[in-house]
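User: I'm putting together a teaching handout on how sequence relates to shape, and I'd like one worked example. Could you take Lactoylglutathione lyase from Pararhizobium polonicum, show the sequence you're using, and then write out its predicted structure as tokens right after it?

Assistant: Happy to. First the sequence, then the structure tokens directly below it.
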Amino acid sequence: MIKGLTGIGHAAIRVKDIDVSLDFYCNKLGFQEMLRLHRDNGDLWLVYLRINDLQYLEVFPYAVGDAAPPREAIGLNHICITVDNVDEVVRQLAEQNIPLIQPLVSGADGNRQAWIADPDGNRYELMQMNADCMQYEAIKRLKETNAA
């Protein structure tokens, strides 16, 4: 077991139109632009967006293709963003004209979730973690096992 791994710091996505994507992520979802990195020739390399103080989204321009791979493809399937109140978030999404790509549901794990996609089809699960969800129960069991 490797010790010292502390969490996922950021996810990175490629987008076709950086301006359209930044409008979606910053103006609609409320992520904050932190910084831009440029290549030696001055071209934009990536934009770093703040989700919170410990989690970020790197957005790379100049993607090729028409849309993100389908959810059945090998590789990253989606990014999950935890929310305090999924009903309130869904209401705010409607105000921003961001449609759900799947109906609001209670998942098999005991959490409520809504699904959206960015302008390039990258999928996001918006999950409200319930106090008695399977993830928290599993964490509790792991901590008890590790403490023994």
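A couple of points you could highlight for students: The beta strands are 10-14, 32-38, 44-52, 55-60, 79-82, 102-106, 112-117, 123-128. The chain is about 25% helix and 30% strand.
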